[in-house]
Amino acid sequence: MLFAMKNSKTTAGREILTAALADPDADLVAMAIQGLDLTDPASRKSTTNIIASLAEKSSASVIRASAIRKLGQIKDKKYKNLLLNGVKDQSYMVIASSIMAIKDAYPDQLQQTLKQIDPEASEYLKTLLTDLSKL
After folding, report:
1. What is the mean pLDDT of residues 3-18?
2. Which of 46, 90, 100, 135 lies deepest, with the highest CB count within 10 Å?
3. What is the rounded distance in angstroms from the CA atom of residue 70 to the CA atom of residue 67?
4. What is the pTM of this model?
5. Among 74, 37, 28, 19, which Cα is nearest to 52's?
């Protein structure tokens, strides 16, 4: 996997990471998502829809969090609602990833989004939210 992550723009690296997206191990899938370079047109074309599907449908919060964070990095308006809805997830990890993705992709909507976070999640993510409300 390390080879693939270091060589994500090569055909071999991209193929390994793309194949890993279907692995049953959630941590491996999350690692593969983060290893993909979506600034590379070939990677972006072949994997973005898969990543979006994982962000919406995976039962593993580590996969949803990783996928949402990656989609935030590409700043594609097609996935804006997915990022915004991530702050309503049951997983604090997914909520935190959604917040960071919104900060990166839609900073003008960050403060409004922070107000929509569940009070229990807000308490758990207090340090992150405090730091972001200073922006």
Report:
1. 84
2. 100
3. 5
4. 0.88
5. 74
> Residue 91: phi, psi to the nearest 5?
-90, 130
Contacts (Cβ under 8 Å, ≥6 apart) of 114? 99, 129, 132, 133
Q: How far is it, in rounded angstroms, from Cα 97 to Cα 128?
A: 11
Tell me the angle at which helices 26-35 and 11-20 cross, rounded to the nearest 10 degrees: 150
106 within 8 A of 73, measured Cβ to Cβ = no
Question: The dihedral of CA 79, 80, 82, 86: what is its sign?
Answer: positive
pLDDT tens-digit map of 28-80: 999 999 999 988 888 888 899 999 999 999 999 999 999 999 999 999 899 99
For residue 2, CA distances in Å to 31, 50, 77, 79, 99 come to 10, 21, 31, 28, 28
pLDDT digits (tens, 9 = 90+) for 15-40: 999 999 999 999 999 999 999 998 88
| CA 57 – CA 54 distance, rounded (Å) | 5
Here the tokens at position 86 are 């991530």
CA–CA gap between residue 125 and residue 4 (Å, rounded): 33
- Which of 61, 71, 76 has the alpha carbon at shortest distance from 29? 61
CA dist 57 and 132 (Å) reads 28
